[in-house]
Structure formats: C-alpha cells, structure tokens
C-alpha cells in the first residue's frame, strides 16, 4: 500500500467504494459519511459554529457508526422475523452492515484522535 493510500481521506474513500451500495441506499448514512469527509478535508461542515476539531470528527463518526449498527440490527431482525423479508434479502446483507461498522471502527481508531 502506498503512502497516499494511508491518508484519512483516501482510506475513507476506500471504505465508501467498498460499501457504496449500503451508504448510498440510506440517506442518513450518506449524509453522515459526506459530513465526515468534509470534516476530514479541513473544510467546515454545516454542523454549527466553531472550528473543526478532532472532537467534532469523533462525534460525526460516532453517529455514523451508531446508524450503521442500527441498520445492521434492523436487517438482522427483519430477516429473523419475516420469512418473506428473508426470502427477498440479499445473502449476507446484514453481515455487510457489520463489516462496514468494523471498517469505520478501525478507521476511527487509526485516524480520528
């Protein structure tokens, strides 16, 4: 992996590319993801007054991870409780949410300090 791929922006872009279907399919995830990208770029996201700080980025990614967790739990619950939902669900969809959560948790540990 080249040094460029290790920047927060490039790593976040890689996570987005891997999970684009999930992120783009949920307006809250997409909005949080876009806000986090803006925060990491050093630009001021539209989240209130004050400078961009690591604490603000922590709150944004924390909210994003919470939303992903909620989506994963909803997907799993729907599959467990509804045979019709399970029959129409893409195989491994709930696991993809958990994989996205893990990727964001790793990202947070490495890049958001």
What does this structure look like?
This protein is mainly alpha-helical and 113 residues long. It has one domain. 73% of the residues lie in helices and 0% in strands. The protein is built from 6 helices and no strands. The longest helix is centred in the middle third of the chain and has 28 residues. The protein is elongated. The two termini are 22 Å apart. The mean pLDDT is 82.
Which residues sit in consecutive blocks of at least 5 with pLDDT less than 50?
none
Derived from helix and strand composition plus strand pairing, the structural class reads: mainly alpha
Order of helices and strands: HHHHHH
Q: Please give the count of helices.
A: 6
Brief overview, please?
This protein has one domain (3-43, 51-111).
Helix-strand layout with pairing:
Blueprint (H helix, E strand, L loop, with lengths): L7 H11 L1 H5 L2 H14 L13 H28 L1 H6 L4 H19 L2
